[in-house]
Design brief:
The protein is of the alpha+beta class. It is built from 9 helices and 8 strands.
């Protein structure tokens, strides 16, 4: 779950909704970013399904008693995440070996720098995913590494763009943005850093330009009242809330 706190509520975006929004963003990119048509549909599938691991976890939001907020993707307990990460990539692999390769690379990247005692489960997961990637490349008959790298970069960039929308209030000034994004996205495309900025409550500008033309995508989330959480608990409060749609135009 992606969480943004306001005075009265928690804005909660299910990871699968965030991933579908990521794909809707990618659909507006200029085609040259994908380096041709080869595996383009599989790349789009990977972008759309990259967080399907979270579908079951987000179905039942849980409360962080220490922080007094719902658990988010940032602080969710590690062991359940690892189990579902692996299961999610398994499910993507049943759809497309190439999409699963990209998703495996995405999850493995979270643990690339994890070392030392107390991180055995993370390291075991990391090495299992590296083995999966090797196997999938054999299945795919050693696909073009440059193309894989570009598609992986686009997946991570779309992930970041969607997180930017989820974690910032619409129309927020650059100075008041979530600190993750003030200096641009960490995901680079061939060394190029992209910077996003809200220019109105409905419009975002990303530089350098990614889109063939002005492009609109819709994100679904829920505004869960804190008062209702206190009354019935986080799970019931989340379930009874209606979906809210956020329409964003990239200009």
């Amino acid at each position: 779950m992606i969480i943004r706190e306001t005075e009265e509520s928690f804005v909660m975006t299910a990871q699968d909704e965030h991933a579908h929004f990521s794909e809707a963003v990618a659909q507006g990119f200029r085609e040259e970013w994908f380096l041709g048509d080869k595996y383009m549909e599989d790349c789009m599938l990977a972008i759309r399904e990259h967080d399907r691991s979270w579908i079951r976890l987000d179905d039942t939001p849980i409360w962080n008693d220490h922080a007094h907020v719902p658990f988010s993707f940032i602080d969710y307990p590690v062991l359940p995440k690892l189990v579902m990460y692996e299961r999610g990539v398994d499910e993507v692999e049943a759809m497309s070996a190439y999409a699963a390769l990209l998703c495996s690379m995405h999850y493995a990247s979270f643990f690339k720098s994890v070392q030392g005692a107390g991180h055995e489960a993370e390291m075991e997961f990391y090495h299992r995913e590296l083995a999966r990637q090797t196997r999938l490349k054999l299945v795919l008959q050693e696909p073009d590494e440059m193309l894989i790298a570009r598609h992986f970069q686009l997946l991570q960039l779309c992930d970041d763009i969607s997180l930017y929308v989820c974690m910032n209030k619409e129309g927020v000034s650059k100075e008041q943005e979530n600190p993750w994004f003030k200096q641009g996205f960490n995901s680079l495309v061939d060394g190029q850093r992209f910077i996003a900025e809200w220019v109105s409550r409905q419009e975002i500008r990303i530089t350098p330009g990614l889109f063939a033309q002005e492009w609109t995508a819709v994100l679904r989330n829920k505004h869960v009242p804190k008062k209702r959480i206190r009354e019935v608990g986080i799970h019931a409060a989340y379930q009874e809330c209606e979906w809210t749609e956020v329409k964003v135009s990239f200009v």
